[in-house]
Design a protein that fits this description.
CATH class of the largest domain: Mainly Beta
Strand content: 35-45%
Largest sheet: 5 strands, mixed, barrel
Helix content: 10-25%
CATH superfamily of the largest domain: Nucleic acid-binding proteins
Radius of gyration: 26 Å
Number of domains: 4
Structural class: alpha+beta
């Protein structure tokens, strides 16, 4: 719906409002926002102030990116991947009120979404979980105590898990925000952090007395990834939560933890009530060609074949004769040569220019003329996408 169409709808419902008044209001809001949000979206927000109902279809077209959000916006729609889920809590004298929160992500950043009262049921019923993409409609934004913008979903808000008209591949996973353990240096001290790894060892929990004589609880475990390992310290109610499922060799994702100085002078990760700890769902990360670097292993890429594969038999350094097919692949970010060996050479032999393919579990090395290339191994899969012409 265009700006003019929204203005006409506002005037038809509110005859005392003139077109000039609405355009002046639009200009005022535009200056306040600083050009971050389109005129159509601003006009839709203004329309909501005048009681104009916008259809769901229009709302979908006007969903915002997380980076566009500012405090005090109304009737906001956001789509993102759920990165963390925090269980509902009761509040009020009679404990009838409920509040829960989520962390969601799109390509522009992370956002906390706060669900109020009956909207918390999607969490209680298990309808929304970490890893899903979800749409949050008719919300409003507020600034929290740390100066960060949050989206609140109240009585008029809607939560739609796994919307069918959204491509989940357009949204980052928790791994995209994770820091490798070897990169957790003093620069991260007292900062919030996301980690994904495997539980190497779990230690028994213990209790302690606080200064006010109340009792606290603490437990520790070691988290590792392919780059290193780090101690994790869990506090109080989070101990009770993790004791129910935490065990050795589990894949975990830890969101919104804090890196702190350990007694040995190194760093350790602290987990409290504001931290999400969950089992890491296996996800396939696909690299953009422009982001590939020498030495990367277990790489997944998607792209379009742009040269006819050159097929031949070659001798290896061990004197073995093997099949090899070489072709060039491109995506929206760049192009790269692919060396497909043995069984993958046979699969690649019949590829045609324009075929769209998926390569899983390959590695990146320097090849001919010192150029980067993707090379296959015995565990590499090469698949032709079903949407090929």
């Amino acid at each position: 719906m265009s700006v003019n169409e929204i203005i006409e709808k506002i005037i038809s419902k509110n005859p005392s409002i003139s077109r000039e008044q609405l355009l002046e209001r639009l200009e005022k809001e535009r200056k306040k926002i600083g050009g971050l949000i389109s005129d159509e979206t601003l006009m839709r927000m203004i329309a909501a102030d005048y009681g104009l109902e916008v259809s769901q279809n229009n709302a979908l077209k006007l969903s915002l990116s997380i980076k566009d959000l500012l405090p005090n916006l109304n009737d906001v729609t956001i789509v993102g991947r759920v990165i963390a889920v925090f269980s509902p809590k009761a509040f009020g004298r009679d404990k009838k009120g409920k509040v829960a929160s989520l962390l969601i992500a799109d390509k522009s950043g992370l956002l906390r979404v706060v669900l109020w009262n009956d909207k918390t049921r999607v969490i209680e019923r298990g309808e929304i979980k970490a890893g899903q993409v979800a749409r949050f409609s008719h919300g409003y934004t507020k600034e929290n105590r740390r100066g960060k913008v949050e989206l609140h979903i109240g009585d008029k808000g809607e939560v739609e898990p796994s919307p069918k008209d959204v491509n989940a591949e357009d949204f980052p996973t928790v791994e995209d925000f994770a820091t490798k353990i070897s990169e957790v240096t003093q620069a991260y001290r007292n900062k919030r952090i996301v980690l994904v790894g495997t539980v190497k060892e779990v230690f028994s929990s213990s209790t302690f007395k606080r200064d006010d004589a109340s009792e606290g609880k603490v437990m520790r475990f070691i988290l590792k990834d392919e780059t290193g390992e780090i101690p994790v310290v869990v506090w109080n109610e989070k101990v009770n939560e993790l004791e129910k499922f935490l065990k050795k060799n589990q894949q975990l994702q830890i969101v919104n933890a804090r890196a702190k100085k350990a007694r040995n002078g190194g760093l350790e990760i602290h987990v409290n009530a504001e931290t999400y700890v969950g089992l890491a769902e296996p996800t396939e990360k696909f690299w953009e060609i422009a982001a590939l670097k020498e030495g990367l292993r277990k790489v997944n890429v998607k792209g379009e074949v742009i040269t006819t594969p050159m097929f031949r038999e070659v001798k290896t350094s061990k004197g073995e004769t093997v099949k090899l097919a070489v072709f060039e692949l491109k995506d929206d970010t760049g192009r790269i040569w692919v060396s497909a060996w043995r069984k993958n050479a046979v699969s690649a032999k019949n590829l045609k220019i324009g075929d769209k393919i998926i390569i899983k579990n390959a590695y990146v090395k320097r090849g001919f003329s010192d150029q980067l290339e993707i090379s296959t191994t015995s565990s590499t899969q090469m698949l032709i996408k079903e949407d090929n012409p």
